[in-house]
Amino acid sequence: MSLSRSIGPALLAATALLFGALIGVPASARQDGTTVVAAEESQPAQVAELTDAHAQAAAGDPAAGQSKAVVCSACHGMDGNSADPQYPKLAGQHERYIARHLALFKSGERENAIMLGFAATLSAQDMRDIGAFYAGGTVKPGLADETVVDTGPYNGKRFYEIGQAIYRGGIAKRGIPACGACHGPTGSGNPGPSYPALAGQHARYTADMLRRYRDGAVYGHGERGNKVMSEVAQDLTDQEIDALASYIEGLYPSDSAALPR
Ligand code: HEC
Ligand code: HEC
Question: Does any ligand 1 atom lie closer than 6 A to the CB of residue 71?
Fold first, then answer.
């Protein structure tokens, strides 16, 4: 899918260069150095498998995953739409992204005392089954903050518009790429272990993650790590982070069953 609709040509040139540097986009994904093309859905971007068991696990079975996820529903909601914003929504997240992060919790490469406990007993196959269950769900988006900002560099803009502009176009002069180039124009990410869906997520969780990435967090040791976000987020201000998180909470795929009418 081409992102040229939402991003101006100059920015595309800048972001294409940046992406080349950040993730080593294959030459075929850059056209004339001006167009960024998201990875094909059928060929999801890869990161190294965490363990041999993960490399060998079969595609997840959503029915098996549903029963294995009963214990998770206390925090993440029955259908993966958590009501309490301190717990991330998992509905609509990609199977292998969920499996990868469960493995990272289990190994301690992503530190969280609560999730360590819940991931510790899961096999690689359990992780994919649970991932498949949540991936089949639909995220229920929240609402973006429309309050007009009355001071600072974004004076006069609605709060979410600050995030929307960065999400769609980045900030070329500060080297911040458009989020949509990797996470998709509607925040649905890309299947596979790499690019998570963001749309509809609680703003509090998104903002937390962005602050951790800004502080340099990389989940996964050595080659298994994914440094991209620590580079993307390093120069974002607190206001930009909160506005991005607000915009993303209100974002949903246009064909979503959960679309507000
Ligand atoms: C007691 C509450 C609780 C329970 C039960 C729980 N989780 Fe979590 N989960 C959390 C919290 C808190 C986080 C956020 C961790 C962080 O901030 O890094 C989280 C994060 C996650 C993430 C990362 C999401 C992302 O977008 O990166 C996944 C995946 C996940 N949980 C899956 C599960 C699964 C599967 C189960 C059941 C086996 C489960 N959780 C049970 C509290 C819980
Ligand atoms: C070059 C590609 C790329 C760009 C551009 C990018 N991201 Fe990401 N993003 C990633 C990858 C890869 C991950 C997964 C990292 C990991 O596994 O730790 C990620 C993870 C995230 C997460 C964590 C989601 C979760 O549920 O765990 C958030 C939030 C996020 N990105 C927001 C953003 C925002 C906001 C922007 C724009 C300012 C952005 N990203 C730009 C590639 C990108």
Answer: yes
**Distance from the CA of 196 to the center of ligand 2, in angstroms?**
7
CATH domain 59-261 topology: Cytochrome Bc1 Complex; Chain D, domain 2 (1.10.760)
Residue 165 sits at the vertex; the CA angle it makes with 159 and 168, to the nearest 5 degrees, is 135
Give the Å distance between the CA of 57 and the centre of ligand 2. Answer: 25
**pLDDT per position as a tens digit, 92-102:** 999 999 999 99
Kindly give the residue spans of alpha helices, DSSP state H, lying in 3-87: 9-23, 52-56, 62-68, 73-76
Quick: pLDDT tens for 168-227: 999 999 999 999 999 999 999 988 778 999 999 999 999 999 999 999 999 999 888 889
CA-closest candidate to residue 59, choices 86, 96, 22: 96
CA nearest ligand 2 atom 16, residue: 226
pLDDT, position 49: 66
User: HEC string of 141-204?
Assistant: CCCCCCCECCCCCCCCCEHHHHHHHHHHHCEHHHCECCCHHHHCCCCCCCCCCCCCCCCCCCHH
CB of 136 within 8 A of CB of 223? no
Domain boundaries, the chain: 59-261
Which residue CA neighbors atom 13 of ligand 2 most closely? Answer: 195
